[in-house]
Amino acid sequence: MFENVRIAVAIPCYKVSQHVLDVIAAIGPEVERIYAIDDACPEGSGQLITTHCTDPRVQVLHHPSNQGVGAAMLTAYQAALRDGLDIVVKIDGDGQMNPALLPAFIRPIVKGQADYTKGNRFYRPESLRSMPPIRLFGNAVLSFITKLSCGYWNCMDPTNGYTAIHTKIIKDLPVEKIEKRYFFETDMLYHLNIIRAVVRDIPMHAVYNDEKSNLKISKALPEFLKKNISRFFKRYIYLYLIRDFNIGSLYSLLGGFLCSVGGIFGGIHWIKGIMNEQAASSGTVMLAALPIIIGMQFLIAFLHYDVSNTPKEPLLLDFY
User: Fold this and answer.
1) Are residues 200 and 294 in the same domain?
2) What is the pTM of this model?
């Protein structure tokens, strides 16, 4: 199936010296090129690979300063485009991603069933047994927030870094706008939804070795929340107000208007009641509650429409 497909693997290298050589050794013969991006690794991962790895497929790329995992991947994407490769698979160098799963990530793209594939550690309950509770909770929260902000309601585990993409899709992405650090995977989903690319989850197990994560959940959650809120409003404005105006647009505008009217009206009368020490009449309560109830129904209808509006037809159908 992969005979005529030129495949590359990108390995961001930052504090992965203990596992990266084993990861490279486990990559199968279907891969034509392996890009190891030394993101100013303090352990000298790039030099380690250059010295001890004899695999002719490996090309070490260096960043003069640490720029983040997203920047490392964008460097690999540009290299793959320059070398005329077809698909780029991201595999971390810390040993958490099994290279044997690579064909499963590539197959939907080659068949024209997806433009982008990503790992999902939530697919099977057995896969979660080795995941630390704090990571399980953080990923569950981020998954729901990302569904709302990026519009891929069929996907879970948005921070999963095991991904594959066709280089023709990369050409359609505004790479200069994509986040360069830990928000990279989520921001990719946002930009993929804007161009209406099809994303498919690939089941995989969670694997944790003796490595220490560079991502601090306590710091990442507030930052990710802020950026996801920003992406939601950008996606909403572009897809529902600028590019198109549809029934979902009407649901959201009416819902927001009615909830605001009910909330403001009720708030004013609640404050007046406190100041005058007088309870609001049942009619006043109903005039405040009714717009909020109807508005919430409109907003739920909008979410239902947004779920049904998830991209379903791969962009790659135009390429094959």
Assistant:
1) no
2) 0.89
